[in-house]
């Protein structure tokens, strides 16, 4: 999978994406992530990406033209994933252009599964007061929110989505993190249950916090019943 991020703060992504399992997944070639500076797609000497809104109002609005140019370049052709054919190109078959907005559909696990099936994801990270509405109406395939609150930009939602999707890609996290404790449902979500480890008893705020006895019993049938009873479906 190729993940392209359009932002005016690409440096925000540098540290996070170079750590832990996401870094390993990139080194293994499971996915390729690149943050693109939106100002690089401007045509004026000041690299202007925003302007005052028509009709008046507070703040500045991100212009549609630089975003359009960025998408046209990123969506058209990408380098081949076959290392033996470094000079060849391939057309992206399945891609999504995602705009993060408080007005968007709430991001969930089912959406992460759907996105994990794509060849390419292009994330548009807004800043300032707003983004020209033509980006939402004419360019984005998905308008998404990660919660009922307002952030300063789309960079954190992009990181949330990248991590949620990346861990579902085959080979991204090996056999451990993505599947332990999760049973995939027919709706694309998963079932998660509480888990404990040693020691069996810990004193917290003057009280003894114990591991449920059933988990220490060795009775796998009863353990499965307990887990089913205490599970939560994440969609």
Describe the overall structure.
- There is one protein chain.
- Helices cover 26% and strands 26% of the residues.
- The protein is of the alpha/beta class.
- The chain has 2 domains: 2-166, Alpha/beta knot, CATH 3.40.1280; 182-234, Trp Operon Repressor, Chain A.
- The strands form 5 sheets. It has a 5-stranded parallel β-sheet, sandwiched between helices.
- A hairpin with a 5-residue loop joins strand 11 (182-184) and strand 12 (190-192).
- The longest helix is centred in the N-terminal third of the chain and has 13 residues, at 64-76.
What is the secondary structure topology, with strand pairs?
Elements: E1 2-7, H1 12-17, H2 20-27, E2 32-37, E3 50-51, E4 61-62, H3 64-76, E5 78-79, E6 89-90, E7 95-106, H4 109-115, E8 120-124, E9 130-131, H5 133-138, E10 142-145, H6 155-166, E11 182-184, E12 190-192, E13 201-204, E14 207-210, H7 220-229, E15 232-234
Parallel strand pairs: 1-2, 1-8, 4-9, 7-8, 7-10
Antiparallel strand pairs: 3-4, 5-6, 11-12, 12-15, 13-14
Roughly what fraction of the amino acids lie in strands? Answer: 25-35%
Number of helices: 7
Q: What is the chain-wise order of helices and strands?
A: EHHEEEHEEEHEEHEHEEEEHE
CATH superfamily of the largest domain: SPOUT methyltransferase, trefoil knot domain
| CATH topology assignment of the largest domain | Alpha/beta knot
What is the average of the pLDDT values?
89
Main beta sheet, described?
A: 5 strands, parallel
Please give the share of residues in helix. 25-40%
Which architecture of the largest domain per CATH? 3-Layer(aba) Sandwich
- How many distinct beta strands? 15
CATH class of the largest domain: Alpha Beta
Global structural class: alpha/beta
Number of domains: 2
The rounded distance between the terminal residues' Cα atoms is 22 Å
Low-confidence stretches: 77-91
Spatial arrangement of strands, main beta sheet: 2-1-8-7-10
What is the radius of gyration? Answer: 22 Å
Shape: elongated
């Amino acid at each position: 999978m190729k993940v392209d991020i359009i932002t005016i703060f690409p440096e925000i992504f540098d540290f996070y994406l170079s750590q832990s399992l996401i870094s390993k997944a990139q080194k293994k070639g499971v996915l390729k992530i690149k943050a693109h500076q939106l100002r690089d797609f401007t045509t004026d000497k000041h690299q202007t990406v925003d302007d005052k809104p028509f009709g008046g109002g507070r703040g500045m609005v991100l212009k549609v033209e630089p975003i359009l140019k960025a998408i046209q370049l990123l969506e058209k052709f990408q380098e081949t994933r076959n290392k033996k054919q470094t000079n060849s190109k391939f057309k992206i078959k399945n891609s999504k252009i995602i705009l993060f907005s408080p007005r968007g559909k709430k991001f969930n696990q089912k959406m992460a599964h759907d996105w994990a099936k794509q060849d390419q994801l292009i994330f548009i990270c807004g800043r300032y007061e707003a983004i020209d509405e033509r980006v939402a109406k004419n360019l984005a395939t998905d308008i998404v929110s990660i919660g009922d609150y307002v952030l300063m930009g789309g960079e954190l939602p992009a990181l949330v989505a990248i991590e949620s999707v990346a861990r579902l890609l085959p080979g991204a996290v090996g056999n451990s993190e993505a599947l332990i404790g999760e049973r995939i449902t027919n709706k694309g979500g998963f079932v998660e249950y509480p888990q404990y480890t040693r020691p069996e008893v810990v004193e917290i705020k003057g009280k003894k916090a114990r591991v449920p006895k059933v988990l220490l019993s060795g009775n796998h049938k009863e353990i499965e019943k307990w887990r089913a009873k205490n599970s939560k479906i994440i969609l």
